[in-house]
Write a structure and sequence with these properties.
Blueprint lengths: L5 E5 L3 H13 L3 E5 L2 H10 L4 E5 L7 H9 L9 E6 L4 H9 L3 E5 L6 H14 L1
Parallel strand pairs: 1-2, 1-3, 3-4, 4-5
The protein binds manganese (II) ion.
Length: about 130
């Protein structure tokens, strides 16, 4: 039986951290949280996640700059990254795909569909 997938959530907003991680844990995933790009890199160096959920707006290095950095490094290029974008910022979505994200999920997340959306991205990634 396959181990539970590890999802790294890179998000600086405490409310979003709590909401996102609680839905993912309930959906059966293992979750690690990072509040910044620096913290995310520490998590990734310690253990490669199966998927990264990446807030676009982070203090310090923003989420899309981190995405580009991860996509350009051989060890991390294969990790699927899904951007978490604010509803109103539609330009973020094109930028997310251009940075190398496989897709995006709009915030605030819909707790009824979020687990399935994440599962869909994981299945697509594993099929490649
Ligand atoms: Mn943020």
């Amino acid at each position: 039986m396959k181990e539970r997938a590890l999802i790294l959530v890179v998000e600086d907003n405490p409310g979003n951290q709590l909401l996102t991680s609680s839905v993912l844990v309930r959906a059966g995933y293992e979750v690690e949280l990072a509040e910044s790009s620096v913290e995310a890199l520490e998590h990734i160096a310690a253990r490669l996640p199966d998927l990264i959920l990446m807030d676009v707006q982070l203090p310090g290095m923003d989420g899309l700059s981190l995405t580009k950095a991860l996509k350009s490094a051989r060890e991390t290029a294969g990790i699927p990254i899904v951007a978490l974008t604010a509803h109103a910022m539609s330009g973020d979505r094109e930028d997310a795909l251009a940075a190398g994200c496989v897709g995006y999920i709009a915030k605030p997340i819909d707790t009824r569909t979020f687990g399935d959306e994440v599962r869909g991205f994981l299945l697509t990634a594993n099929a490649h």
